[in-house]
Amino acid sequence: AAAKEACDKALEASKNANNDIYFAIGKSEITSAQQAKINKLVKKLNQNPEAKVTLCGFADKSTGNPERNMILSQDRVNEVAKALEAKGISSDRIVTYWFGDTVSVSDIAYKNRVCVTVSE
Q: What is the pLDDT of residues 4-43, one digit of tens each?
């Protein structure tokens, strides 16, 4: 139930691309272009010390296979979590879920290679 709720919130949040950290095909490395979004999220979390962030990872169904995409979406979430922790965000403020290619956040393939961040 928690995963379904997190997924629903991520799908809603993904309509605002500011919450989306995009990745290259088959990759989980955070590019320098996406690092600004991490920095913005860290700033928001530092301004709201009680806030938690939920990270939801997804993969593009048109590339890879379901098993690989599940691992890839998990790797993407873990990379974002590590980036947040490296900037001082406590791991107990970070909740992670990954959905592989079982759920699409967009009809546009590259927009599914994403970690959606939802802070509360």
A: 999 888 888 887 767 899 999 999 999 999 999 999 999 9
Please give the distance of CA 81 from its chain centroid, rounded to a whole number: 9
In a 3-state reduction of DSSP, which class is residue 96?
Answer: strand
> What DSSP designation does 115 have?
E
Q: Are 74 and 115 in contact (CB under 8 A)?
A: no
State pTM to two decimals: 0.93
Contact of 96 with 81, CB cutoff 8 Å: yes
Residue with tokens 């928690």: 2
Give exposure, 30-60, as e/b (b: 16+ Cβ within 10 Å): beeebeebbeebbeebeeeeeeebbbbbbbb
